[in-house]
């Protein structure tokens, strides 16, 4: 088991959700802490709380890309690659997860078990989306281990 999966399991055991885990791993890679951001990332979890929306791992992965490539202040500009990066992540997720579970809505992926499925089914999805998002960052010239 690799270090990312071990850290994910530790965060999950502490009660963090899929989208929170993805951003916490990114912040850890950057050597940063941001409890407010981690708290905010609970919003996309479990399909925005009721399971009826897009998988929180995918939205968390999109937020990870945005952490590096989106506009964050008046003096910044969004990366010209940002939209393509989001599209690549989304297309990959549709192919890898959506095709396997019949869609990308959280309750479609978790099935009748709902959030209880997270430990078994969603752990691998979270690890895979984090890895894919980090690969996309590197392929587009971003250093995922560098802070702003």
Number of domains as seen in the coordinates: 1
Provide the residue-averaged pLDDT: 92
Strand content: under 5%
So what's the overall shape? globular
How far is the N terminus from the C terminus? 30 Å
Order of helices and strands: HHHHHHHH
Largest sheet, strands/sense/barrel: none
Q: Approximately how much helix is present in the residues? A: 55-70%
Structural class: mainly alpha
**Count of extended strands:** 0
Poorly predicted ranges (pLDDT <50, ≥5 residues)? Answer: none
Radius of gyration: 15 Å
How large is the count of helical segments? 8
Task: Tell me what the structure shows.
With 148 residues, the protein is an all-alpha fold. It has one domain (3-139). It is 64% helix and 0% strand. The protein contains eight helices and no strands. The protein has helices spanning 3-13, 18-30, 35-40, 45-51, 56-69, 82-101, 106-110, 121-139. Helix 1 packs across helix 8 and helix 2 (18-30) packs parallel to helix 8 (121-139). The longest helix has 20 residues, at 82-101. The radius of gyration is 15 Å and the shape is globular. The model has no long low-confidence stretch (mean pLDDT 92).
């Amino acid at each position: 088991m690799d270090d990312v999966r071990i850290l994910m399991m530790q965060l999950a055991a502490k009660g963090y959700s899929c989208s929170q885990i993805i951003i916490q791993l990114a912040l850890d890679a950057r050597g940063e802490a941001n409890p407010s951001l981690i708290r905010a990332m609970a919003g996309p979890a479990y399909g925005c709380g009721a399971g009826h929306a897009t998988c929180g791992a995918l939205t968390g992965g999109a937020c990870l890309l945005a952490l590096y490539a989106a506009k964050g202040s008046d003096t910044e500009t969004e990366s010209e690659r940002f939209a393509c990066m989001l599209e690549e992540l989304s297309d990959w997720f549709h192919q890898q997860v959506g095709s396997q579970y019949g869609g990308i809505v959280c309750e479609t992926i978790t099935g009748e078990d709902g959030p209880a499925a997270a430990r078994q089914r969603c752990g691998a999805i979270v690890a895979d989306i984090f890895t894919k998002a980090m690969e996309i960052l590197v392929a587009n010239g971003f250093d995922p281990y560098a802070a702003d």
